[in-house]
Automatic annotation (TrEMBL):
Protein name as it appears in the record: Uncharacterized protein
Superkingdom of the source species: Eukaryota
UniProt lineage: Eukaryota, Metazoa, Ecdysozoa, Nematoda, Chromadorea
Biological source species: Caenorhabditis brenneri (Nematode worm)
């Protein structure tokens, strides 16, 4: 048996809520985050192996180009940080960032997060 670990953007692109496919990129933020919270707790891992955590997935209003952090005079975007730190350029920097509930300050482009336990594969809850 081969275990395939899917990047989070692949999983979110196939997301279904109430049996209907939803476009997570355009869905209202409050409704999307409530629906994602209702799916329950699952494991996520940074593809660079920097962290692995379990929690409720949430989506930020910011994207990789609009979210800035760091000292006031040296702030960088999440897109710049991802490229410098991990050598990863988001394929869709205009997509909203994701985080785990309780870690709102740690947001990531969906391309750098994966589901190592395959809790979100097609047999799992988001694909009813």
């Amino acid at each position: 048996m081969v275990l395939v670990v899917l990047p989070l953007n692949t999983i979110l692109n196939a997301l279904r809520i109430g049996g209907e496919r939803v476009d997570w990129r355009r869905m209202g933020l409050e409704a999307l985050n409530r629906a994602l919270h209702d799916l329950g707790v699952f494991a996520l891992r940074h593809i660079g192996g920097r962290w692995e955590r379990a929690g409720h997935l949430q989506v930020s209003q910011d994207n990789a180009r609009t979210r800035r952090f760091g000292p006031r005079r040296a702030q960088i975007t999440v897109e710049e940080y991802s490229l410098r730190r991990d050598g990863l350029r988001p394929l869709a920097p205009q997509d909203r960032l994701v985080y785990l509930e309780g870690y709102e300050g740690e947001v990531f482009p969906v391309e750098v997060v994966e589901d190592p336990s395959n809790t979100l594969l097609p047999h799992g809850p988001p694909f009813n």
